[in-house]
Amino acid sequence: MKTFLVLVVALLCSTSALAQDMLVKRNGDKIRVKILKITKKKVQFVRHGTELPVYTLPVSDIAYIEYPMGDRDVFNETIAEEKSKSKVQQPAKGEKLERWHGPVPPPNGVVVEVFPQQPQKDVKIYSIGDIYEKDGVKGIVVSLDSGGEHGVIMSLDESCKEWCTLHRKKLTAVGANNRYDGKENMKAVEQYIANNALSWSDFPAFEWCRAKGEGWYLPSINEVWGLGTIFLGGSRTAPNRRFRKSFNAKLELAGGVPLSGIMIYHSSTEDKDSKYSLYSHMNSEPPYVQSGYKADELFVRAFYKF
What is the DSSP string of 131-156? Predict the structure, then answer.
């Protein structure tokens, strides 16, 4: 009986030893494995007798996989075939290789429809201080993307308006707290008006910008501060008077109102206290950003993204 059990155990061990996959790498290494998954590009497996970790090899590293019944998956032959197909046909000795510099000719009998190449549309590239005028929108360029094709313009004219005319006791925070994008602040004001049964006339500075048409908005504090920096030639601490003069000359030539270095301009950004909003000026003296009552009448310029 004991001899029988020993034989059974030996047979089971022998069967277990045979029931394994053999992975042979292209460098000659052989690994006893259990194959889990084969795709076009990789093979997943665990080493024989284990469940973890799971290994992954690219098929380009594998010569073949041999299974317990003796059948194989061969990989290097397929790779060699693909490489041979990709090689350029070499001319026989003494034969000149024809060099074709045009498109690959179609097979015999195949008709290829040729479409005329469409001419590329002229793309207008802008610089700071250029006058933008398109589809009824007109202003002076004050900001550009890296390509110079898109950016922000400022209205040629200006006005003097209150940020809000609601009584301070009735006014709560509107939610116009974006310091970078005035369009987002316009949306916040619009939502506040709708939620509280108000009108745009309760927010005169915003109403003036909005009246210019779709897309115009009251700029954020960073946009107003940036305008002052641009106006001074790119530096608050080292203003370029020549650039400032040229900028205003272009404004006047286009029928606009020149910027003033001593004027204070509203931004659309609220301060932390609901009664106050942030403003900036166009000169070189700090502080460049300050807070004031929303009911104060300050100068207003409208911005538009193109």
Answer: EEEETTEEEEEEEE-TTSSSEEEE-S
